[in-house]
Amino acid sequence: MLSMRQYNGHKLLLIVLTAVLLVSCSEKREPVEVAKAGKALGRVIVIGFDGLDPGMVRKWVAQGRLPTFARLIRQGAFGDLWSVLPPSSASAWTSAMTGVNPGKHGIYGFLKPTSDPNAPPVFNTSLDRGFAAVWDVLGSYGRKACVINIPLTSPADSLNGIMIAGFPHASDDKRSYYWPDSIESQLGDYSFDAFRVTCAKNREDRFLQKMQGISSNRLTLGLRFFDEMDWDLFWLVFTFTDRYQHYLWKYMDENHPMYDPVIGATYKHAIEDAYVRADNYLARFMDRMDANDLLIVMSDHGFGHLYYTINSNNFLQRTLGTVEVSNAYIHPTDFFGAKFKIDVSGPGAEERYMSLRKRLIEGLRSVTDPLHNVPIIDSIYVKEQIYKGPYLSNAPDILCLEKPGYLFFSLPKTPDLRLLDRGPSPDKAFSGFHRRRGTIGVFGKYVIPGKELEAKIVDIAAIIYAYLGVPAPSEIDGRIPQRLFVDTVPQPVQLVKSDEPGYRRPVKLARQDSKKIEKQLRAVGYIQ
Questions:
Q1: How far is CA 5 from CA 1, 171, 172, 482, 505, in A?
Q2: What is the largest CA-CA distance in the chain?
């Protein structure tokens, strides 16, 4: 296992090693001619707002609260960006930066899968990314990138350019938070997104003050690097939009079970104010764009109300009963969301696996809210339906999307096996949670104005490759949305694929570093 101080020196080598190690388990590919880089149409700017919901944007645009987004909708393309299934930030941002589904990059959530029921939790980091990020490929063609605060990029990649890594961080050594070492003196009092800012009841003012300071600090550094650094791709993510909606949704929704009319009167507009701040931040970057720049505004998922959490471990006990299943381990694969792994060994393993999978699916179909006698599950999937790639074996075997207002959460099993459970820290519990439909906006002189857009999160990398004239790895899943660019563009904006594989070798994380990530996730409420 590598120490944190060894990480950066090994990253470039790891990317080079992957083709030999993974070609046997990747899809069979027809040989193609080696593609050369073309001429870039301009620079690409990606501004991410974690959890920004397109419905909320449209609502507050219609009310005149978001003039910058109104301009983006009017003069550019705007619409829905479909996230990964289920919409977890860890896998979603990784799909955005790689252009492939989780079956090809191997990140299905913050938590790594395990077949050992007694094993301590181990967490994903950037080193577990099994596919090259877009900046890795750009760098091999001489393009430079400035990347700031994208989740699951810590430890920072040794790219051709600059990176300030995003949450979570596996070390207290901040030298692993940025690349190269020479930018340390330029960081000043920059607040690394360690996700240690939580929002307990009656401490909302402290939360808001800290979040405003962190986001303002990030904007200041982002604008300075935007103006002063040499780059072809600039990618900055703000996470305050996600944090506000997780904690403060209950104060703008009078129907929420956690709604408090006294506190709600004070914080009713807090989420709206966060969207207004996002609008103001976006304006600062739009005003700095060069004539040929392309701006992409995106989120990793949308948001909605969360009324009830479902205890995943109680559900498993209720579904499978007390009958022991020898040589089998059935468990949630992450802290939140209905994602279940079935590990079976011994004689007849495949037959027993299919039988257990069928029982779990039937259990999910029949689960209802005991308070209101309504179904909880919207849709159910098995892994081979939605994932494709060499990391399919690591995927959850069964996953589902809950109906709005419900969320499976990996809480401790209770004696009464209650289904609805707010967990041991209800004052810090989430009141809003992810929706699969995120936000995308594309703005620039070659973009068809006023276009209604629908795209997938893997398309983000594809658009970047095409606009910068760089061939993408042959295994990329992303595409260029149809009719996004005007016919008068100087050269076709098309995705060209190389025969160079995008797979790279993941690296195992040291146990002591995994514990640091656990503390950050527990502090914010992802672990109860």
A1: 12, 9, 11, 45, 19
A2: 67
Instruction: Identify the pLDDT of residue 18.
Output: 41
Query: What confidence tens digit (pLDDT) does each residue in 260-308 have?
Result: 999 999 999 999 999 999 999 999 999 999 999 999 999 999 999 999 9
Collect all residues with Cβ–Cβ distance below 8 Å to 192 and sequence separation of at least 6. Answer: 164, 165, 169, 174, 177
**Beta-sheet pairing, 302-311 with 432-435:** antiparallel
Q: How far is CA 522 from the centre of its chain?
A: 18
HSE at residue 38, side-chain half, CA atoms within 13 A, is 21
| Separation between Cα atoms, residue 70 and residue 49, nearest integer Å | 16
Whether residue 29 contacts residue 104, with contact meaning beta carbons closer than 8 Å, is answered with: no
User: SS3 for 298-325, per residue?
Assistant: ECCCEEEEEEEEEEHHHHHHHHHCCCCC
> Which secondary-structure segment (H or E) carries 452?
strand 451-456
- Enter the DSSP assignment of 409: E
Whose structure tokens read 């996470």? 239
Whether the CB-CB separation of 455 and 79 falls below 8 Å is answered with: yes
Q: How, if at all, do strands 44-49 and 77-82 pair?
A: unpaired
Q: How far apart are CA 72 and CA 93, in angstroms?
A: 22
Q: Which of 165-174, 234-243, 455-464 has the lowest mean pLDDT?
A: 165-174
Weakest-pLDDT range from 188-202, 220-234, 256-270, 467-481 = 188-202
Instruction: Report CA 414 to chain centroid distance, whole Å.
Output: 31
Predicted structure pTM score: 0.90
Q: Which amino acid is at 471?
A: P
pLDDT per position as a tens digit, 173-215: 888 899 999 999 999 889 887 656 678 888 899 999 999 999 9
- At a CB cut-off of 8 Å and minimum separation 6, what does 206 contact? none
Q: How far is CA 385 from CA 129, 142, 233, 341, 376, in A?
A: 22, 38, 33, 15, 21
Cα(468)–Cα(145) distance, integer angstroms = 11
Q: Determine the Cα–Cα distance for residues 466 and 522; give it in Å rounded to an integer.
A: 40
Q: Are 369 and 273 in contact (CB under 8 A)?
A: no
**Angle, CA of 362, 364 and 365, to the nearest 5°:** 65
Q: Smallest Cα–Cα separation from 503: which of 34, 28, 7, 98?
A: 98
**Beta bridge mates, 336:** 409
Rounded to 5 degrees, what are φ and ψ at 472?
-95, 155
Pairing of strands 145-148, 233-238: parallel
